[in-house]
Amino acid sequence: MAPGRPETTELYPVPGPAGWLMPGVLTPVAALALVIASALLGDLGLGSIVRLDPKGNPVDIWGLVAFTLVPFSLLALMLLAWVWTVERGALANLGLASPRRALRSFARGWLVGLFTLLLVVIVASLSGGFALRTASSAWDDPASLLPIVALMIGFAVQASAEELLFRGWLFSSLVRKFNVATGVVVSSALFALAHFSRGQSALVSIGLLLFGVFCALWAWRARDIAGVMGWHSGWNWLLAVGFGLPLTGLDVGIPALLAPLQPVGPDWLTGGAQGPEGSIVCVVFFVIGCMVLMRRRG
């Protein structure tokens, strides 16, 4: 701790940054500004190389690869530049320990992400939400496997950048200035706001909020973010490529890697245009997951 700096609570088990720390009430504003700035700069770069719809979303699979790489790389670089130059902090202050430990935690989290997403889709299907449809899969055309592999890297970048911002920097900054409960609530609410789409249902909004709470509790329990980075990456990747279903409202016609599914149930069970993340099954999963994480931490 720097001389004269008041004692603070650190979320991650390392000394706090030695530089200037902005007031706690401004950290959500700064986080949202980083999201907006990186998205606008990313759109400027992407508009000249990929096809985007009027909302700025990609319309094909290679566009989705670029969408996961360009703006989120910018987001991570902008955040790291702030932490290193202004706050004079380190990656450890964002919840990333030694590279070897972080890599192991990421890999375990990634596998858990695959398993939990598969579990959600299976439960929704057995409940009458999805049915197997006759359609070509990624294995019918080996060339389609290349962008799917590229998306594995792209979603690792996208999810890791979001975790660095929301659970690495914002969450830890709020805990330092206020307390853990404030950090969980505010960082999760801002995460849901950053993913908000006009006209989305209340169930989708609840799911997004619980997604953020689940990730925050994971980071709080583990005292690092490498594991939840991996979970977020594996979850997003399998949802995008595994079943031909929308990912957070994005559907660019990716051939299914595992099983092509068709929504046949009501929107509250399938998630509608949002995809399985907007379903009641996903909400129940996050509620149970949050309860387990809180109990294990206690």
Explain what the structure shows.
By secondary structure, the protein is mostly helical. The protein has one domain. The protein is built from nine helices and two strands. The chain has a two-stranded antiparallel ribbon. 44% of the residues are buried.
Major sheet characteristics: 2 strands, antiparallel
Number of folding domains?
1
Task: Report the average pLDDT across residues.
Answer: 90
Quaternary: single chain
| Series of H and E elements | HHHEHHHHEHH
SS field, number of helical segments: 9
Low-confidence stretches: 1-6
**For the CA atoms, what is the radius of gyration?**
19 Å
Which outline best applies?
globular
Number of strands: 2
Distance between the termini: 28 Å
Descriptive keywords:
298 residues, mainly alpha, two-stranded antiparallel sheet, 2 strands, 2% strand, globular
Summarize the structure in short:
Helix content is 61%, strand content 2%. It is an all-alpha fold and 298 residues long.
Topology:
Elements: H1 27-46, H2 61-87, H3 99-126, E1 130-132, H4 145-177, H5 180-194, H6 202-222, H7 226-241, E2 261-263, H8 267-270, H9 280-297
Antiparallel strand pairs: 1-2
Helix pairs in contact: 1-2, 1-5, 2-4, 3-7, 4-5, 4-6, 4-7, 5-6, 6-7, 6-9
